[in-house]
Amino acid sequence: MPTKITARYVLGHHQGRHVLLENACVVYSGHTIDYVGHHYTGPVDEERELGDALLMPGLIDLDALTDIDHLILDSWAGPEQAKGHQWSEDYFRHRRADVFTAEERQEIREYALIQLVLHGITTYMPIASEVHSEWAESFEELVGMAETSRRLGLRGYLGPAYRSGVNVVLKNGERSVMFDDDRGREGLSDALRFIDHANELNDPLVSPVLLPCRIETLDIELLKATAAASSERDVLVRLHSLQGLVERELILDWHGVTPLELLEQVGLLNNRLLIPHATYTDRNPAVFDEDRGDLAKLVDSGASIIHCPLTSMRYGSTLDSFGAYKEAGINISLGTDSFPPDLIRGMDAGVQLAKILAGTNDAGDVAGYVDAATLGGAHALRRPDLGRLEPGAQADLVAFSLDDIRDGVHDDPLRTLLLNGTARQTVLSVVAGRTIMADGRIDGVDLQHWRRKGQKLFYKMRHAYSARDSLNRGADELFPPVYARLER
Hints:
β2 and β3 form a beta hairpin. The chain has 488 residues and is α/β, with parallel strands linked by helices. The strands form 5 sheets. Strands 1, 2, 3, 4, 5, 19, 20 and 21 form an 8-stranded mixed beta sheet that branches. Strands 6-8-9-13 form a 4-stranded parallel beta sheet. The chain has 2 domains: 1-58 and 389-442, Urease, subunit C, domain 1 (Roll), CATH 2.30.40; 59-386, TIM Barrel, CATH 3.20.20. It has helices at residues 71-74, 79-83, 89-95, 102-118, 139-152, 181-201, 220-233, 245-255, 259-266, 294-301, 309-314, 322-328, 343-358, 366-380, 413-420, 447-468, 475-478; strands spanning 3-14, 17-29, 32-37, 46-49, 53-57, 59-65, 87-88, 121-127, 155-158, 161-162, 165-169, 175-179, 206-208, 211-212, 237-238, 273-276, 304-307, 331-334, 397-401, 426-431, 434-438. It is globular, with a radius of gyration of 22 Å. It has 17 helices and 21 strands. α4 runs parallel beside α5 (139-152) and α4 (102-118) crosses α16 (447-468).
């Protein structure tokens, strides 16, 4: 029997675009939507009235933090201080080790996935820092994560991250990358093994993808092998690239081409590629400040970008600009990439940054950002049944409460939510017809336990930075407080 959910506002879908319905409902049975509109009169097994709330497609986060937050530590440091957050050359050569046990790694994953559920993410592709791992991610680690994800009910696009190189600080104080090509090949082997594992699971909520790390941390043969595997197995590849000047300078020095040209040369630049950030194209003022063809090349390839506006802003960069990329015809999806996994705050940051870059208020494209968090993600995943509320689509939906006086007045609910709210207002999350969170509660999950566990794991991660720092500074020196702390 169907389930019916009614809300003051419903973001439905009609003739290829989102439309807003007031005092409407969504009805679903099994894992698909049956009806979206005002006048459903058929029988239902369960009915939920959300009142003053916005019911919309589940949010799609394609660079979703599945780790303990590190941005709280490293998003404000200057160039010299930031070197202490990287591996030292000595640590790479002689002392690299896992900070966490295998059990703790699984606890970190569960803590992070719970955060995604609480923030209205229904579909995700994970990102985790490798700085506190001996190398990258193992097959076994992702097998465990897939089981946790299935238990919580999220829709995951998963695979172990792999690399053949690590960003390091050399003895002379310069930043570079040091390589261990054998570890890269082992990582790709684990990734291919996970593809087979995911296919054997035959669970529609677990889809295998290839998740190599950053473009400058993959040797040329590993890049080519990744492209070949993607083509042979028809799986998506997400590769962080076009995201920094250091990356660009290294690629130019090693290969004599830009990162975008390298993607094309190795066979990765196609419609199976997802590029997180993509901020440093030729039109970026730090590069050329004029479009010399990069955007057209991205459009022609069919690749999607994953825009992470809140995280980019916190590290001092942004997409220049959302409007230009959209107008060029590039498919834009969204990611959080750090804590909090809050795409509402991310969309608001992106809208405001767009105004600053353009120098005009009407550059704040709320609809464009909402589309990116839903339809853009679905397009990147090649899943036209995601990212929309319409009959036949997957019953992936999320509701945000707008009934608190602190939410302010209502004009357009999406503007109200972005300007005045956060994803902490999530009151309902449904994936493939299963309610995975309601009223801030997740069945079988003790949130206070995980709050304490997360803090304990964070302290262990923070302390471990000292062993990697080339100057062996203590954590309190690497991460000083905003104000000096007086001893009792």
